[in-house]
Design brief:
Layout (H helix, E strand, L loop, with lengths): L7 H9 L1 H27 L6 H19 L1 H20 L2 H5 L5 H31 L13 H6 L3 H20 L2 H22 L7 E5 L14 E9 L4 E3 L2 H6 L11 E9 L4 H30 L2
Helix pairs in contact: 1-6, 2-3, 2-6, 3-6, 4-6, 4-8, 4-9, 6-8, 8-9, 8-11
């Protein structure tokens, strides 16, 4: 990574963490090259005895999505620990402040460098993942709504990483202990992302299909759709659990007359809901990142007023 075009605090920050930046860059580049090679091998063996190539592609994509889901935690831990808390704990940040650098510029420069590397790195990883996933997207393990696939194929991962970065800068200042700040940032990041993921499929309204009773012809749905709820419909539009008739008659396709069941329903998210959900969730996570960043600079100002 060249530092020739950088000046002042930016140059110092890049020089200070150049080994980490080189390591991160090498990891991203290796991931990209590896996925390109595996995808190329799989494409070359289509229509032949390419079982091994396709199996390797599945393994590579599976490992890739596992690794990408921990990227926000790595970013947050690094910013909270080595980049902020360690300097506050050791007092080395005071050297920067003696060089006519304000506390806000000291922290802002660190976050700008980390944010740029994070954004470029995660976007590159998403591109590499989508390259391999394109040959597997119609298989059940890699459908668009699967948690690992969903996070690894859209801007949500970038937003999550930037949120972890902002949160790390806040917690690093509050805790001022390297290991503790890293652990706490990982814990809080995980809790916040878990809550958002639990609300993910409530961000936009579901679509509904209706059809005959289960056990007859059923409802014809796209395998790529994500079902959220299914059950029985009465003549008045009331919804009942899918097992309501079976509990009374022990037959899925026979309902007592007094229940007035006319058919069944299925609520679902079609594949077309991927991008709207991604964009809304990305906006929410970025808003939380902005709040964390604002709080970080408020804490900085209060302690160095």
């Amino acid at each position: 990574m060249s530092t020739l075009a950088l000046k002042g605090p930016s140059w110092v920050t890049v020089r200070q963490y150049r080994r980490t930046l080189w390591l991160a860059g090498a990891g991203v580049l290796l991931s990209l090259v590896g996925m390109v090679w595996v995808r190329y091998w799989d494409s070359r063996t289509v229509g032949t005895n390419g079982v091994h190539a396709h199996s390797l592609l599945r393994i590579a994509v599976d490992w890739a999505q596992t690794g990408m889901t921990v990227v926000p935690f790595l970013v947050g831990a690094f910013v909270a620990g080595p980049m902020v808390a360690r300097e506050l704990e050791s007092g080395t940040y005071k050297l920067a402040l003696t060089q006519s650098v304000s506390p806000a510029r000291w922290l802002g420069t660190k976050l700008a460098v980390a944010g740029a590397v994070t954004a470029v790195g995660t976007i590159t990883l998403i591109g590499a993942y989508r390259l391999g996933w394109a040959n597997l997207g119609d298989t059940s393990s890699f459908l668009w709504y699967q948690p690992g696939t969903y996070v690894s194929t859209g801007p949500v991962l970038v937003a999550q990483s930037l949120f972890a970065l902002a949160l790390g800068s806040l917690i690093g200042q509050l805790v001022r202990r390297t290991v503790t700040a890293m652990a706490l940032t990982g814990l809080v990041t995980g809790l916040v992302l878990l809550v958002i993921a639990s609300l993910r499929w409530s961000l936009i309204p579901v679509k509904t299909l209706t059809g005959p009773l289960p056990g007859t012809h059923g409802i014809s749905v796209d395998i790529a759709s994500r079902g959220t709820e299914t059950g029985l419909l009465t003549a008045t539009g009331e919804r009942l659990p899918s097992h309501a008739c079976f509990d009374r008659t022990e037959h899925w396709d026979v309902c007592p007359a007094d229940m007035n069941v006319t058919g069944s329903y299925w609520d679902y998210h079609p594949a077309s809901h991927f991008w709207p959900t991604q964009l809304i969730e990305t906006g929410i996570v970025l808003a939380l990142a902005a709040l964390a960043l604002y709080a970080a600079f408020r804490v900085l100002r209060a302690r160095h007023a």
